[in-house]
Amino acid sequence: MSKLTKNQKIAYSKVDAHKAYKLGEAAALLKEITFTKFDASVDVDVRLGVDPRKANQMVRGVVTLPHGTGKVVRVLVLCTPEKEAEAKEAGADMVGLDEYVDKIKTGWTDVDVIICTPNVMGKVGALGRILGPRGLMPNPKTGTVTMEVGKAVRDVKAGKIDFKVDKFGIIHTSVGKISFSTEQIVDNVKEVLGMIIKLKPSAAKGTYVKSIYLSTTMSPGLQIDTKSVETK
Fold first, then answer.
1. What are the E-state strand segments in the chain?
2. Distance (Å, whole) CA 51 – CA 131
3. Contact indicator for 217, 36 with CB cutoff of 8 Å
4. Which of 101, 128, 132, 212 maximizes the CB count within 10 A of its CB?
């Protein structure tokens, strides 16, 4: 096992591994124990009492973070010419169709979000094997397959994210940056948790939210007291 650095020792000395922190308390402590030279992402991990192998217990949704993600999101819009101006005016970084489809076929995926119109899904669908594993495949459920490309671009740029429970029953997503204020981190986490609660499958039995952990890119994880967060 590698030795802990001086900063890691400081971080772990401030964390009580057996304690479930209140959300505001955890957000404040996170800022004390993060020593990265870059603006680290703040992540939340929510373990749910669902069986994601069953279609009626899948949890997937979208939410717009009140304070944004803190990230510069590169958006590609795949559309026919009549929608290009709308996409560009909304702030899309790249707009086009065939040239980008061909580029993606060679393995290019240097983009964060892809939005497309329904009438080009025939071409985009063929890219599933490349885009799917990278979480880039446009999907009507997340609002990334739409005729309202301008609105979709603005939403993404404003902090709209999508999340999905993994095969272990965990939702993992970023909710901002460590440079955010404690209040901003709390607001963003509550927005995500509120949506997760709203999406509780009727087939899910027993405890729905089993555990919540908050961490940054290189910090210890802090367990959150689920009772300190509105989860009903």
1. 41-48, 60-64, 75-78, 94-96, 113-116, 160-164, 170-177, 209-216, 222-224
2. 25
3. yes
4. 212
